[in-house]
Design brief:
Elements: H1 10-18, H2 26-36, E1 41-44, H3 51-63, E2 75-78, H4 82-95, E3 103-106, H5 112-121, E4 125-128, H6 130-138, E5 149-153, H7 155-160, H8 164-173, E6 179-184, H9 189-198, E7 203-206, E8 217-223, H10 230-238, E9 246-249, H11 253-265, E10 270-273, H12 279-291, E11 296-299, E12 314-317, H13 324-331, E13 341-347, H14 352-362, E14 368-370, H15 379-392, H16 395-403, H17 416-425, H18 428-440, H19 443-447, H20 451-454
Helix pairs in contact: 2-3, 3-4, 13-14
């Protein structure tokens, strides 16, 4: 089946051909005819299989007839993130170049003035994030009474980000008679309730079991002994010969900054995208990655949904995602448009529970591999000789002998260094006086004492006069 078999207009077929596509993907083959017939639709497909074109292409043909009015858009596409909204806008520009349709992009992080001017001119397609749309609606800058086609894209992500109350309020402002399309890679129960509330007899298009990964993606789980070894394992992956470029995902913005700085110091061409950056900075970093100026893009989950970059060879989860659904969307950045890709997740023992949830969601175990950066136990034997050195080395003994002269009882075998200062300070007569009493107090002279000495009371503890040692004979 080709795009011509789907009932698209000649102008649209020419734009698709100019973009280099010839055969529609499964989700496009199933969704486009139903959308052209005006039916409500629930589309479930793996990330990277062409869901965006599945609603953009038929919308262009539907909106070709009719005209727009000021501040009253004819169609509305809700996106969870600014990056995804920009990608959808790029799709409309690419496929709608032969159709005179007007488009406006409403998202936070940019000035509101230009967006209001575009609305005042009238737009056929309004692509918006829920927060900015509600802000402009509350200011009276936009009316939704003429919107006859609503698209809720990445509905499960809307749920994760807490946008469901906003979506319910937006739907209440729209005409009751409208066509509603809901697209997502996963379909948790709250989204099913949302669909039941706002869609009328929807056609369910499911080209794969919900929450399954693309078969073109080779998944690997690298077990790292400790969390502080993850950077070593990451560098080893990035230096592998099969590596071309990669998006590295982290759970926290602070980790994104630290990791990008660390990889730059290691000589890698790296950029970053995270929530604290200005919109202009994020766009610039993403453009650098798309153009090949940098080969590594470190990102938080703000970039996980819908970003379309051709030829990404690797997706690396530096952190195991907190939500199992995010794993599907992260790894979906590779293996797109029929190409193959590699998804690697770095995990420690502490991540076992999160890995179990992911494997339960995708329905199979992820092949394990050991990290090249492992602990080196050689450090322990190096410390053992250091502990034994004080016992075997003669230097500590010399030091103790050098301190010995300071004691009251000096050892007989004094070293030359210890005796030399004593010899310089002491004169010979003093040495003779100090030696004689020691000889007289020796045991042998005491055995030859006179009777006078024996009469001295044993309580006497003073020095013994020399004249008392002379015998009476």
């Amino acid at each position: 089946m080709t795009f011509a078999d789907l009932g698209l207009s000649d102008e649209l077929l020419r734009a698709v051909e100019d973009s280099g596509y010839t055969d529609p993907t499964p989700i496009q083959r199933a969704a486009i005819p139903n959308v052209l017939m005006g039916k409500d639709l629930i589309g479930i497909a793996q990330t990277g299989t062409g869901k965006t074109a599945g609603f953009v292409l038929p919308m262009i043909d539907i909106l070709h007839e009719g005209r727009s009015r000021a501040r009253m858009p004819r169609s509305l596409i809700l996106e969870p993130t600014r990056e995804l909204a920009m990608q959808v806008a790029d799709n409309f520009e690419k496929y709608g170049k032969y159709h005179p349709l007007s488009m406006a992009l409403l998202m936070g992080g940019v000035q509101m003035g230009d967006q209001v001017k575009a609305l005042e001119k009238g737009v056929d397609v309004l692509i918006a994030t829920p927060g900015r749309l509600m802000d402009l609606f509350s200011r009276g800058k936009i009316m939704l009474t003429d919107c006859k086609l609503l698209v809720i894209d990445e509905a499960d992500r809307m749920l994760d980000m807490g946008f469901i109350p906003d979506i319910e309020e937006i739907c209440s402002k729209l005409p009751r008679t409208r066509q509603t399309l809901l697209f997502s890679a996963t379909m948790p129960p709250p989204i099913q309730k949302l669909a039941a509330k706002f869609l009328t007899d929807p056609k369910r298009v499911e080209v794969a079991r919900p929450a399954t990964a693309n078969v073109n993606i080779e998944q690997r789980l690298v077990i790292v002994p400790r969390a502080d070894k993850k950077k070593d394992a990451l560098r080893e992956i990035l230096r592998h010969e099969e590596f071309k470029n990669a998006i590295v995902f982290s759970n926290r913005k602070t980790t994104v900054r630290e990791l990008a700085t660390s990889l730059k110091r290691s000589g890698f061409a790296v950029g970053q995208i995270q929530g604290d950056m200005e919109q202009a900075q994020r766009i610039a970093e993403f453009d650098r990655f798309k153009s090949g100026e940098i080969t590594i893009l470190v990102a938080s989950d703000v970039a996980a949904r819908g970003l379309d970059v051709k030829g990404v060879s690797h997706v690396i989860n530096f952190d195991v995602p907190w939500q199992p659904d995010d794993y599907i969307h992260r790894i979906g950045r590779t293996g797109r448009a029929g190409m193959t890709g590699i998804a690697i997740t770095l995990a420690t023992r502490e991540d076992n529970e999160a890995i179990d949830r992911i494997e339960k969601l995708i329905g199979h175990n992820i092949p394990r591999a050991s990290a090249g950066a492992e602990d080196k136990p050689a450090a322990e034997p190096e410390r053992k000789p250091e502990r034994a050195e004080p016992k075997r080395s003669p230097k500590p003994r010399a030091a103790s002998e050098a301190r010995a002269p300071k004691a009251d009882k000096a050892p007989r075998g004094r070293t030359a260094k210890a005796e030399k200062p004593r010899e310089e300070r002491a004169d010979k007569p003093r040495e003779e006086r100090s030696d004689k009493p020691r000889e007289e107090r020796s045991p042998k002279p005491r055995e030859e004492r006179s009777t006078v000495v024996e009469d001295i009371a044993p309580e006497w503890n003073g020095p013994l006069p020399s004249f008392l040692s002379v015998s009476a004979d």
